[in-house]
Automatic annotation (TrEMBL):
Gene3D superfamilies: CRAL-TRIO lipid binding domain. GO terms for molecular function: phosphatidylinositol transfer activity. PANTHER family: GH16843P. InterPro entries: CRAL-TRIO_dom, CRAL-TRIO_dom_sf, CRAL/TRIO_N_dom_sf, PI_Transfer_CRAL-TRIO. This is CRAL-TRIO domain-containing protein.
Length: 395
């Protein structure tokens, strides 16, 4: 559980710089037009048929639901169950099994206890809580970075500033690496709750948008080359993709160096084609891609939404955890290293460890075959900025 007393105001990599130009196979041919008839239905509320199917799934999973400490709307409500249905193409049997597995995992990992003190915090208070428990070397992750007119919830990432080695090795004894896994689970729960609440408020299926500014990615060691982080991801990414399905309508990667294909080759093993189709990657070296990226960004929000690295004019100090970085604050780092109690705990941690085991060679390549090119999808927004997000959701 969370130490609520810590909710108060608080003041990704060793490598060679990538070549100036990405390899020719960095992107694939542009896909078909966004405007296929009927795509926008995925942003609609559950149909009568889906509501009946959701009720059927609830009945089939009554035992698992009964085992939960709590049964909130964002966990067992019609919209959440409909996400499982849509993820599995309307197959009730597959959706039932997936939802049942999710509930069993949720009870086993004590997710309800983990989130109970923070799940209903307003966005600014949640950010304050995050800062109170996270490592100053954590990757930059900003829930609530922006919300679109349609109600889609934007989460901002800047992995190029992630100090992966320091994140693993510079930490107090009371806060092992698995503690950060708990923090990430709470963050995923919080985003899912915001998306669910927005869906009821807007009377449509709302999603999150993951906005990734990949500037400087590859300047230090890629996190997939740090054994402890790679193992943690291998053990947990699959569950995250399955149990938080249909959370994202878009993952937009901007300023991407060619090294992003190493990341993609790793994470694609944990994703379905439906999820992969919602990832749009734009290079930082090709003028036409930079222009297309700006079209996507303008569809998300005005220039005042984004920092200068994304073509906006938002002041860096207005973005949590971003310039100056937390690890640049000497006092913040000292306080972190002197910590004696973790900011977040879970009953499971007292029973078994999630530690990554003996260290591997840091030169070892990650799972998969990163030397094989990843063909990434590049698209242009449709004419109507208000409707193209929903087109993404139906792919």
């Amino acid at each position: 559980m969370v130490d609520s007393a810590q909710i108060a105001v608080s003041p990704m990599f060793d490598g060679v710089e990538p070549p100036a130009e990405p390899p020719a196979d960095f992107v694939a041919e542009p896909p078909a037009d966004f405007g296929a008839e009927g795509w926008s239905q995925d942003c609609s509320l559950p149909s009568e048929e889906e509501l009946k199917q959701a009720e059927q799934i609830r009945k089939e999973c009554a035992v698992q639901i009964g085992g939960l400490k709590d049964s909130p709307r964002d966990v067992v409500g019609d919209i959440r169950i409909s996400r499982f249905l849509r993820f599995h193409g309307g197959d009730v049997d597959k959706a039932t099994k997936s939802f049942g597995d999710f509930l069993a995992w949720r009870e086993r990992e004590k997710i309800d206890e983990l989130r109970k003190d923070v799940i209903d915090l307003p966005p600014k208070q949640f950010i304050k809580w995050l800062e109170s428990v996270m490592s100053p070397f954590s990757p930059i992750l900003v829930p609530g970075f922006h919300e679109t007119e349609e109600g889609h919830y934007v989460v901002f990432f800047a992995p190029g500033y992630f100090k992966a080695h320091e994140f693993v090795h510079k930490r107090p004894e009371c806060q092992p690496l698995e503690t950060d896994l708990l923090i990430m689970r709470v963050a995923m729960e919080y985003v899912m709750k915001q998306v669910d609440d927005n869906s009821y408020k807007k009377q449509k299926m709302c999603y999150s948008i993951k906005l990734i500014d990949a500037e400087h990615l590859g300047r230090d060691s890629l996190p997939i080359f740090v054994p402890q982080l790679r193992k943690l991801a291998q053990e947990n990414l699959g569950n995250a993709m399955n149990f938080y399905c249909e959370q994202d309508i878009l993952t937009l990667v901007v300023n991407a160096p060619w090294t992003v294909r190493f990341i993609m080759s790793f994470v694609s093993a944990f994703m379905t084609p439906r999820q992969l189709n919602r990832i749009k990657v734009f290079s930082n070296t090709v003028a036409t891609e930079a222009q297309a990226a700006q079209e996507f960004l303008r569809a998300i929000g005005p220039e005042s939404t984004f920092p200068s690295s994304l073509g906006g004019d938002r002041a860096p100090e207005d973005i949590p955890f971003y310039q100056p970085m937390l690890f640049e604050n000497v006092r913040r780092v000292q306080q972190w290293m002197l910590r004696r109690t973790p900011g977040i705990t879970c009953p499971k941690l007292g029973e078994e460890s999630l530690s990554t085991g003996p260290p591997e060679s840091e030169s070892e390549m990650p799972a998969g075959t990163p030397e094989e090119p990843i063909h990434l999808m590049i698209e242009s927004p449709r004419a109507s900025r208000r409707s193209w997000f929903c087109a993404c959701a139906a792919e």
